[in-house]
Amino acid sequence: MSCGDPHETDCGEVLDHLYEFLDSEMPDVDRDKFRHHFEECSPCLEKYGLEQAVKKLVKRCCGHDDVPADLRAKVMGRIDLIRSGQAVPDHDVTAAPEA
């Protein structure tokens, strides 16, 4: 998607990284570039507004489910394995062995 006007930051780049912007998962320098882009590009601003509204709706409708403690522990354990560079097994290593 492009509005057809030249921008310092390309519309495609902005839309490819839109969720990183929405989730505040990008460096401040890039966030500033995106904000500037939205100020001058109404199609991208419209897409940003739509995606932001969808995220808010999903959070409101689905954001209240509590995650079981054991599931959270398993997920965090796998993340720790990945971060440490260890091999991550395909099966659940926390499950009791089958008889």
Task: Explain the overall architecture.
The protein has 99 residues and is an all-alpha fold. It has five helices and no strands. It is elongated, with a radius of gyration of 20 Å. The N and C termini lie far apart (56 Å). The mean pLDDT is 84.
Highlighted features:
62% helix, elongated, 99 residues, 5 helices, mainly alpha
Could you provide a short overview of the structure?
With 99 residues, the protein is mainly α. It is 62% helix and 0% strand.
Topology of this structure?
Layout: H1 11-16, H2 18-22, H3 28-40, H4 42-62, H5 69-84
Number of helices: 5
N- and C-termini, Cα separation:
56 Å
Order of helices and strands: HHHHH
Number of distinct beta strands: 0
| Spatial extent as radius of gyration | 20 Å
> How many strands, which pairing sense, and closed or not: the largest β-sheet?
none
Note poorly predicted spans.
Answer: none
Class derived from helix and strand content: mainly alpha
Rounded average pLDDT: 84
